[in-house]
Amino acid sequence: MFAAFSGVCIALSFPCAAERSEPLSAAPIQGMTAHDAAYLAALDAARATRMASKDAGTALKKAERSATMPSIRRAEATCQAARKAEESARRASQKAIVSARLATSESRGLADKAARASEQASIASGQALEPAEAATRKASESIDADAKRAASKARQALRMALRAHRAAAQVAHEAAEEAWRASRQARSGPIARQSGTWQTTRAPSSFNAVRTAPAIGSSSLANEINLA
Are 222 and 53 in contact (CB under 8 A)? Predict the structure, then answer.
């Protein structure tokens, strides 16, 4: 299990085939096994979900500053960051849906759970955008009390969005780990599946770009999941 955990950590932290900006197709790539396609899609979704969590954290930090001392500049910066977070959340949700469609029977449960969590995070980011825009309008009206209240509402909404993104990032990682484990087990052959042991330590083809990278421990991954 640690090998699977470390493998996913490495792939999440270094460039590889799953780092493309566009989502994978909802059908396996020609010549690729269903398990490998499911793993690549899960990894793609996990990376996108982590990025969405990072953007949500950035938006919250800007909202914290704006709520402490409202100004037009800070309100606009918060609103811009909230828009970016909402866009990242939508992309992550789309990739999570693709991952759920490509998931094999071994990883489908977690993939579906990750898709639902990612959708909830996307909704939360969309809901946080409205108070962020309202705070910008209030700041431009130069009404200090109203501007401060509006900035506080934006901060609270973005805080809730970040919580949803962190939860989605955790589930997305678990789904990627499960897909990686299923892919590796499928490669190890029927004997290994019957005995419940791994017969190979060779990483799947999706790791070719990162197989020389140093292993990353679980504590490091936990820090990466809690990006904000």
Answer: no
pLDDT of the residue at 216: 27
Instruction: Give the integer Cα–Cα distance in Å for 167 and 90.
Output: 16
User: Strand runs (DSSP E) across 64-126, as ranges?
Assistant: none
**Low-confidence spans in the chain with pLDDT less than 50:** 1-24, 26, 191-228
Q: Tokens representing 175?
A: 């789904």
pLDDT given at position 189:
61
Alpha carbon distance 221, 120 (integer Å): 23
- What letter would DSSP give residue 226? S
> Could you tell me the CA-to-CA distances from 130 to 85, 167, 177 in Å, in that order?
13, 22, 35
Q: What's the CA gap between 111 and 146, in Å, rounded?
A: 43
Q: How far apart are CA 41 and CA 136, in angstroms?
A: 38
Structure tokens at 178: 């499960």
* Helices 2-13, 34-68: inter-axial angle, 10-degree rounding: 60
CA 203 vs CA 155, 184, 200: distances in Å:
43, 7, 8
Tokens 């934006």 — which residue?
A: 154
Nearest alpha carbon to residue 99 among 191, 178, 166: 178
Hey, CA dihedral for 23, 85, 54, 109, is it positive or negative? negative
Structure tokens at 28: 């396996």
